[in-house]
Amino acid sequence: QVQLVESGxxxxxxxxxxxxxxxxxxxxxxxxxxxxxxxxxxxxxxLVATFTNDGSIAYEDSVKGRFIISRDNAxxxxxxxxxxxxxEDTAVYYCKANLITQRLVxxxxxxxxxxxxxxx
Length: 120
What we know:
Number of strands: 11
Shape: elongated
């Protein structure tokens, strides 16, 4: 089995910062891509930032220049540094990993989600 464990959400005032972490563990052969999505109430889940399969980085336009994604490959962990937070960043943030299990099966996994609330 594979688990994604997220941490770092919380309540912050507008203009503040938070750092999210997501660690993948279990029967992992290789992590191909790993990143962050978010879902606000009444809205569809959307990409925030991700490392793609070829190692490049993609950001949603509204977070460019404010959010930074990074990773520690040795720990199968991805981070999201969120600066200059705005009330519209309020959402549940989900980690997603596309990986290959030790049985050499390629699968997408999602974390349980962590709430980020930005007050005005």
